[in-house]
Amino acid sequence: MGKKQKELLKVENLKTHFMIEEQKAKAVDGLDFSVLKGEFFGIVGESGCGKSVTALSVLRLIPDPPGKISNGKVFFRDRNLLELDWEEMRKIRGNEISMIFQEPMTSLNPVFTIGVQIMEPLMIHRNMGKKEARETAIKMLQRVGISSPERRVDDYPHQFSGGMRQRAMIAIALSCDPGLLIADEPTTALDVTIQAQILELMTEIKNKRKESAIILITHDLAVIAETCDRVMVMYCGKIQEVASTINLFENPLHPYTKGLMESIPSLTKKKKRLITIPGNVPGILNFPPGCPFHPRCSYRMPVCEKVVPELLEVEKDHLVRCHLYNGEGKNQ
Amino acid sequence: MNKVRKSFLSPLFIKRIKKFKSFKRGYYSLLIIGIAYLLSFFAEFIINGNALLVNFDGKKFITLYSDVSFKKYIFSKAIKTKEDYYEYRSSLGSDTVNLSDEKLIYLKSEYELYDRIKKDFDNHSVLRNIFDEQKRGDWVLLAPYPYGPNENLLDELGDRNPPTGPDGKNFLGTDDRGRDVFARLVYGFRIYMTFSLLLTLASYAIGILFGAILGYYGGKVDFLGLRFIEIWASIPFLFTVMVISSIMIPNFTILIVILSLFYWIAMARYIRAEFLREKSNDYVQAAMAVGVSDRRIILFHILPNSLTPVISFLPFTIISGIAVLASLDFLGFGLPEPTPSWGQLLSQGISNLSSWWLTFSPMAAMFVTLILIAFIGEAVREALDPKVYSRMK
Questions:
Q1: ipTM, 2 decimals?
Q2: N or C terminus of chain B with fewer C-beta within 10 Å?
Q3: Does A94 touch chain B (CB under 8 A)?
Q4: Contact A108 B283 (CB under 8 A)
């Protein structure tokens, strides 16, 4: 019971499908996870594994058509977001759940000043007047570390550098003090030094706000290791492994996770060649039957080609979806 | 770090204005058309059949737009002096009237004066003669070009039959009803420009709204909307306007409403395309994620980013607005008589082929206006063009 109270977001059996050329693409296929209050939750996976679609599904921003959330429940503060009407949903977006997008270059509207764009959610959700919103916008810019915000607030996005734009995006996302912040690859488009600053900023924000949580979506394991408390590894629209960050890095169970870990270049160990996972991520329209990872898996067993493995709690709070840890798999 | 000068306009827009100014032809065309249109609102001061100001009996009457106040004064005065005269006359005794009674003579002259003015209160040349005769310090201020667009000049033409050719008095002659062609051209310019601007405004408003909704919502809305546009566009618009015009006499407003019902289609298509492209941009998704309502996204987020077709087509829509009004007037389905109209002048030119000025002057006016606007359009398009034409040396 104690755990349930601490849950901020609970996703149950979420399925988001896209209709592509009359075929159903299962971008997210039966996702169950929960994010606790005060947690920095990471979602990691290769391109096209459904990370971003998960985030967009939580906010119900899936373009329909072709996309459709066909099944599942998303509880946020014990309200099922998928059952809310559009107007209620609009009040949640940017107010209780907000999102930072991958491309700070294109996610800001080029025709408005930064200030106007930070003021917008404040005026919509907090019913602030222009003056008050402007003052808050200046404070927000200060908080995300933009120098001389009084002057910068009237700048246009093209007058900001990439890192500053991402900071402005974070300022927009945080302006209404949301309970949940979803950051969809916030550092991918930035160079490494700026990346470190942004991550530091996000960690700082998280430490200051105990009641809220951050979901960080990335394909960069280094970013995860640096910031997250708990990690979810996704592959082909399914959870493959969930564990605390320390646990995952020290004791990866799923062959896919292991493969990812091995592909990180190491400074300490001497290796001639970087180990890679053979093959490619399968196309979204033809996921292999059984375990979707089996064509690339070095631990492959006959059962993997036929049966989709269940997500099992192998250790405490360490879930994995693999036949290796399944009674069936061990028998063979 | 020097402070960037803040401006209401975005730097890009300022840059485009600068670029526009560098195209001299378009820039001067804009100046000419702009100033001419602005001046045309004060046309009454320059070209007017009425007197501008009448000073009479120590009172000043502004007769610029209407001479009602002057007319009222004259008529009441005429009645009053007549009454005074007869009253005094009867008070002198019915039979023997001393005609040399000074007061009687004075009253009679007064009464006769007002009676004369009453007959010709709207004819300033007669007024002027009377005022000069009386030497009472009364005067009439005339416009520099003292012929109105709807003023019948048959009296002044004397035994010449309209249409009369250009002469010193009527620069471009008179039309078949003896009205001054130059005055009609100038007033026609004002009407045509206003009509075309309002038509453009109305049709763009409809087109932008329709296109924005189609492009933004897409899917079924888009499909049904496009089919509607296709059906609507297949209605032959000139015939429809003619049919409507023959059922009811169209006025300025009705014509704008009818024409804008057909003129929005092209803009709707362009704006739809812009919205389809623009809505997939990240900032739209970002705005949605912040909880911005659909209406606000359409009007404040996407629309300012999709105004390129609006700006580049604007001058050409104005051109076609002028052309369509001219053709409707020419066919006799446009603005009702006696509105000063270029198209109507042209159709007079057809029936009076030997009077070259009736064809030439509206044609020249239209040619100059349209080509100036086309130059503006060309410069606007060039200014918005991001390409810089350069060559390797």
A1: 0.75
A2: C
A3: yes
A4: yes
Q: Minimal CA–CA distance to B107: which of B130, B84, B133?
A: B84
pLDDT on residue B31: 94
**Spatial contact of B73 and B163, defined as CB atoms under 8 Å apart:** no
Quick check: A59 and B289 CB within 8 A? yes
Nearest chain A CA: its distance from B10 CA (Å) = 8
- Please state the rounded mean pLDDT for residues A164-176: 85
B16 touches chain A (CB under 8 A): no
CB contact under 8 A, B290 and A172: yes
Q: Where in chain A is the domain with CATH 3.40.50.300?
A: 2-96+178-331
- Return the pLDDT at B389: 55
Nearest-angstrom CA–CA distance, B232 and B253:
21
In the block, which residue shows the tokens 């059949």? B49
Alpha-carbon span A71 to A17, nearest angstrom? 9
Is the pLDDT reported for residue A332 higher than 50? no
Q: Do β-strands A23-36 and A7-20 pair in parallel, antiparallel, or remain unpaired? A: antiparallel
Mean pLDDT of A41-65: 83
A2-96+178-331 is classed CATH 3.40.50.300? yes
Contact A216, A180 (CB under 8 A): no
CB contact under 8 A, A107 and B285: yes
What pLDDT does residue B386 have?
Answer: 67
Tell me the pLDDT tens digit for each residue of A175-222: 888 888 888 888 777 778 778 888 888 888 888 877 788 898 988 888
Choose among B318, B219, B230, B210: nearest CA to B274. B210
Q: Which of B11, B290, B305 sits opposite A93 (nearest CB)?
A: B290
Q: What is the pLDDT at residue B391?
A: 57
- Tell me whether residue A88 is exposed, middle or buried, using C-beta atoms within 10 angstroms of its C-beta: 0 to 12, 13 to 18, 19 or more: exposed
Q: Do A91 and B4 touch (CB under 8 A)?
A: no
Q: What is the pLDDT of residue B256?
A: 92
Of B288, B301, B305, the CB nearest to A61: B288
Residues of chain B with pLDDT under 50: 1-5
Q: Which of B283, B288, B293, B299 to mutate to test the interface with A (most CBs of A within 10 A)?
A: B283
Domains of chain B listed by start with CATH number: 53-142 (no CATH), 181-384 (1.10.3720.10)
Q: Do A108 and B286 touch (CB under 8 A)?
A: yes
Question: Measured between beta carbons, which residues in chain A are less than 8 angstroms from residue B3?
Answer: 151
Which residue matches tokens 């289609």?
A: B265
A111·B4 Cβ contact <8 A: no
Tell me if A124 and B291 make a contact (CB, 8 A cut-off): yes
Residues of B in contact with A111 (CB under 8 A): 10, 304-305
Residue B367 sits at the vertex; the CA angle it makes with B361 and B373, to the nearest 5 degrees, is 135
- A170 to chain B, closest Cα gap in Å: 11
